Amino acid sequence: MKNKIFTVISLLITFTLVFASFCFAEKVKVRVVEGIIEQVTDDSIRVRGNYYNIAHVPLKNASGETLSKSYLNQGKKVEIFFLGNKITSVLVHEYMLE
Q1: What's the mean pLDDT when you consider all of the chain?
Q2: What is the tens place of the pLDDT at every residue in 2-33?
Q3: CA separation (Å) from 36 to 46, 65, 75, 91, 98?
């Protein structure tokens, strides 16, 4: 009898936790803004007409190497990665030739 009660309580706890995780899953949004750098200031870049604060945000190249802010130049393609409303990283591509 005790094993049956323990099993039922364990299943109820498990279902409650699974249900709660689905409720909060929609609130975490991952998105990427891709575009060409239009302007660079000390702590922000303008891409697609919007300014993004990149202070304390890791800058990476396509190989995953960390870059300095000196690699941020007008005309370079970037991908800005967000988790929720926070920028998690910026991928900086070399100049695109067409």
Answers
A1: 85
A2: 778 868 777 777 777 776 666 655 556 889 99
A3: 9, 20, 6, 12, 14
3-state secondary structure the chain: CHHHHHHHHHHHHHHHHHHHHHHHHCCCCEEEEEEEEEEECCCEEEECCEEEECCCCCEECCCCCECCHHHCCCCCEEEEEEECCEEEEEEECCCCCC
> Which of these, 25, 23, 28, 22, lies nearest to 86 by C-alpha position?
28
Nearest to 57 by CA among 49, 67, 47, 48: 67
pTM of the entire predicted model: 0.68
Q: In what order do the strands lie in the sheet with 86-92?
A: 50-53, 44-47, 30-40, 77-83, 86-92, 59-60
